[in-house]
Amino acid sequence: MNLRFWLKLVLSTCLLGWLLQRTPLGDVTADLTRVGLGIFIAGALLSLQCWIDAAIRLWVVAPEFPLTEVVRMSFISQFYGTVLPGQLAGDVVKIWRLGRFQRFPGHAAAATLIDRGIATFALFAIGAFAAFALDTIHRSLGIVLVCATFAIAIAGVMLSLASVRDLLVRLANIGSSRPWLARLSELLHRIAHALHDAMRRPARLMICFILALVFHAICIGNHMLIGHALGIDIGLSAWCLVYAGVSVLMLLPISIAGIGLREGGYVGLLALFGTSRETALALSFTFLGYALLGALLGYVTELMDYRDQ
């Protein structure tokens, strides 16, 4: 394992340790015992539905890939996204494993990044709406999310333009003496080509966006379910903002399995609405458990793959 992995492991440990040092574990455990087994099971089923939704969403963007393979690779990416630094690590594994089914080099990468971009666009839009629906304290965050939403949309439109694709080809030729620049330009060109191809099927992009909204709605509903059982009494807009904020933090590849970032995000954001640190950590540990459940399902799927080979 390289130095970067150990640095991220140390960061996760320090963040979580700092929070636990300031929070009585007995109170966190007491909060968790208030949640019935049926609620935990319902939350796990909702999480499973989210993972299936994400797989179908990718398949809608790239129907050339077999649906069964997309579902299997999506579960496997849950495993690698948990054991490797950052959720994006799971996307990298998904791209690599789906590469054997792609029509042209880089198709799997392009489809995965388009899917991720649409899901992130929907996430930022939900977060921005929630921030503006709340009081003025959260308006600055809403402005940031609105800017990020427009940035993703503009980037997608720009990459789909033929002139931009031609520019990327020229950059790849110019940067042939610098391998990293040539590879980056080539990847961007492939993404642009795939996005241009996807733009000719706007119905699929719209379906993907709707599925992304459904995905986020299920996740927010899951938060409300567990949160209500823990006694967190906040409105829908507040839950949307908390979910969006934590989800953005989880994209950062600076920790292992999001440990530390997830807990800090819930504690910090829920504190804005008067939720205690103990209850916020209980919520965070619940969703960490669901993430580990997804990783376990992915690990079992990976083992089955190896046995079939």
TrEMBL record:
What are the UniProt keywords, alphabetically? Answer: Cell membrane, Membrane, Transmembrane, Transmembrane helix
UniProt topology in membrane: Multi-pass membrane protein
Going by the entry's taxonomy, the superkingdom of the source organism is recorded as Bacteria
Membrane-spanning parts: 113-134, 140-162, 205-230, 236-259, 280-300
* InterPro entries to which the protein is assigned, alphabetical: L-PG_synthase/AglD (IPR022791)
Its localization reads: Cell membrane
A Pfam family matched in the record: LPG_synthase_TM
**Do the record's keywords include Transmembrane helix?**
yes
Tagged with keyword Hydrolase: no
Predominant place of localization = membrane
One term under GO cellular component: plasma membrane
Identification of the protein by name: Flippase-like domain-containing protein
